[in-house]
């Protein structure tokens, strides 16, 4: 165990189940974005507009307090979604999701610059592995669209890191507010594009699922479960997302990543998981050391 505070009154098995459901719901974005014939900006708007209602209900008891950092985090969240959706349309689902998971590189660098979080040797080792993995994605024979899609996916990892650092810097803020604001932005800027799209039954059904279930309900499930499960366990469970995401796409439409991209994805995800395991071990040792140094000394009888 680490020194994080976990609410033990909630059934742990239920919290773990909620995390598994969350990862499965998140992983469906790839295949649905591939199937729907809307443009990326339209998908952003439709998904965001429907997610707003879920977030408003979820945050009904939260005090709405915005500041510049929350707004910056919201902008980064909105841009991340647009970049991810666009990259999903231009490259393989595996490339899009694996490259977005390079975000820890940028979190390490941004954390050192803005949060005064000093990178450890484990962080630098993770950085090297992820950078090595990045190189493999551009070794496969891809079209120009594929290469641009890869670059957009990498940029989505950068903006996701900016969002993460912004939210982590808010000690008393609510990450849900930043995400709600991001969806409001997405709905507004993408509305003109969405109004030009076809509202065939299939498109409406896909968009409803993406907005209400895949984004809105999944976030509510994750926010509920994360309070009752150690951070490492939660991280490892939701790592199912980048594994299942391209799997659904392969099973439904037969799209598969190239061998080098697959190797790069294994390096990226493996580095992220390994860093979490090493960090957990380090945290456990530190917590044990603190318990030993703060243990009260029994005094003898007067």
Features:
302 residues, mainly alpha, 0% strand
Q: First CA to last CA: what distance?
A: 38 Å
Order of helices and strands: HHHHHHHHHHHHH
Uncertain runs are: none
Beta strands, count: 0
Rough outline: globular
Average pLDDT level: 81
Task: Report the major sheet.
Answer: none
Strand content: under 5%
Q: How many individual helices? A: 13
Structural topology:
Layout: H1 12-27, H2 29-35, H3 40-58, H4 68-90, H5 93-100, H6 103-114, H7 121-137, H8 144-168, H9 175-194, H10 201-225, H11 231-238, H12 240-253, H13 259-294
Structure description:
This protein has 302 residues and is an all-alpha fold. The chain has helices at residues 12-27, 29-35, 40-58, 68-90, 93-100, 103-114, 121-137, 144-168, 175-194, 201-225, 231-238, 240-253, 259-294. The protein has one domain (12-286). The chain is globular. The model has no long low-confidence stretch (mean pLDDT 81).
Summarize the structure.
With 302 residues, this protein is an all-alpha fold. The protein has helices at residues 12-27, 29-35, 40-58, 68-90, 93-100, 103-114, 121-137, 144-168, 175-194, 201-225, 231-238, 240-253, 259-294.
């Amino acid at each position: 165990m680490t020194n994080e505070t976990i609410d033990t009154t909630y059934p742990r098995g239920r919290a773990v189940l909620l995390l598994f459901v969350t990862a499965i719901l998140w992983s469906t974005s790839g295949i649905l974005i591939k199937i729907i014939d809307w443009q990326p900006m339209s998908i952003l708007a439709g998904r965001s507009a429907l997610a707003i209602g879920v977030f408003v209900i979820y945050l009904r008891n939260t005090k709405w307090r915005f500041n510049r950092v929350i707004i910056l985090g919201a902008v980064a969240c909105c841009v991340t979604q647009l970049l991810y959706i666009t990259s999903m349309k231009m490259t393989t689902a595996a490339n899009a999701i694996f490259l977005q998971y390079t975000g820890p590189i940028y979190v390490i660098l941004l954390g050192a610059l803005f949060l005064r979080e000093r990178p450890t040797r484990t962080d630098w080792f993770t950085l090297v592995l992820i950078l090595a993995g990045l190189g493999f994605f551009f070794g496969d024979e891809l079209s120009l669209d594929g290469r641009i899609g890869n670059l957009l996916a990498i940029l989505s990892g950068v903006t996701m890191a900016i969002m993460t650092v912004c939210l982590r810097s808010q000690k008393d803020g609510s990450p849900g507010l930043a995400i709600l604001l991001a969806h409001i932005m997405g709905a507004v800027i993408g509305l003109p594009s969405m109004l030009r799209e076809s509202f065939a039954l299939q498109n409406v059904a896909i968009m409803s699922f993406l907005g209400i279930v895949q984004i809105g309900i999944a976030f509510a499930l994750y926010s509920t479960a994360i309070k009752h499960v150690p951070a490492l366990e939660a991280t490892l469970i939701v790592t199912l997302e980048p594994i299942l995401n391209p799997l659904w796409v392969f099973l439904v439409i037969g799209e598969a990543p190239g061998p080098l991209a697959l190797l790069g994805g294994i390096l990226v995800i493996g580095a992220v998981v390994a860093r979490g395991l090493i960090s957990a071990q380090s945290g456990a040792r530190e917590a044990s050391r603190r318990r030993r140094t703060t243990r009260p000394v029994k005094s003898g009888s007067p």
